Amino acid sequence: METLQGNLLIASPSLADPNFRRAVVLITEHTDEGAAGLVINRPSPSPVSELVPQLEPLVDEGEQVWVGGPVQPNAVLVLGEFVDPDDAAVPLFGSLGFPALDDPEEVVPVTSRRRVFAGYAGWSPGQLDDEMKRDTWLRHDASIELVFYPKPGDLWKLILSEKGWKYRSLADAPDDLSWN
């Protein structure tokens, strides 16, 4: 099994599950025991200061919590771009990783960007591999720029368009494919 950790998965337009409709997921773990990731294009309407005030020092004023996925929606994860990747408690790829949150104020000087996520996406053993075989997801190389893309509502279309002519028509497809 080839690991998908550190890759982006783009939901196929036919994926009907509302949790993943037009989602872009950063795979943070993929082993024989299952997979986990964060939906990176779903900001919530709630600011960090309201939902997890103890993490407010990590983000700009008014920044929202991101909906990382449907699993454990009360779990909080922080994703950071590290100045020195060795400072990540859990490294992912390049300078991206999860910081230790023992003292949130110590995270700021060792990272250049951070996002706070509620929940995550999860797959049982073999489930993600099966979904990949059924073309439920399209794999795309992850980059720091895509992970912290400033216009999350455009990210799904942008990545499909970057994948070439074959996918551009999918990017422009209506939400309901029966309208086509």
Write out key terms for the chains shown.
180 residues, 5 helices, alpha+beta
Which secondary structure elements does this structure contain, and how are they paired or packed?
Elements: E1 7-11, E2 24-31, E3 34-39, E4 43-47, H1 48-51, E5 64-67, E6 71-82, E7 90-93, E8 96-98, E9 111-123, H2 127-133, E10 137-141, H3 144-147, H4 152-162, H5 165-171
Parallel strand pairs: 5-9
Antiparallel strand pairs: 1-2, 1-10, 2-3, 3-9, 4-5, 6-8, 6-9, 7-8
Helix pairs in contact: 4-5
Question: How would you characterize this protein structure?
Answer:
By secondary structure, the protein is an alpha+beta fold. Helices cover 18% and strands 36% of the residues. The chain has 5 helices and 10 strands; from the N terminus they run E-E-E-E-H-E-E-E-E-E-H-E-H-H-H. Strands 1, 2, 3, 4, 5, 6, 7, 8, 9 and 10 form a 10-stranded mixed sheet that branches. A hairpin with a 2-residue loop joins strand 2 (24-31) and strand 3. The mean pLDDT is 92.
Quick synopsis:
The protein has 180 residues and is of the alpha+beta class. 18% of the residues lie in helices and 36% in strands. Strands 1, 2, 3, 4, 5, 6, 7, 8, 9 and 10 form a ten-stranded mixed β-sheet that branches.
Shape: globular
β-sheet strand percentage: 35-45%
Order of helices and strands: EEEEHEEEEEHEHHH
Overall pLDDT: 92
Oligomer designation = single chain
Distance between the termini: 36 Å
| Main sheet attributes: strand count, strand direction, barrel closure | 10 strands, mixed
Radius of gyration: 16 Å
**DSSP helix count?**
5
Question: Could you tell me the number of beta strands?
Answer: 10
- The secondary structure category is alpha+beta
Low-confidence stretches: none
What is the helix fraction of residues, given as a range? 10-25%
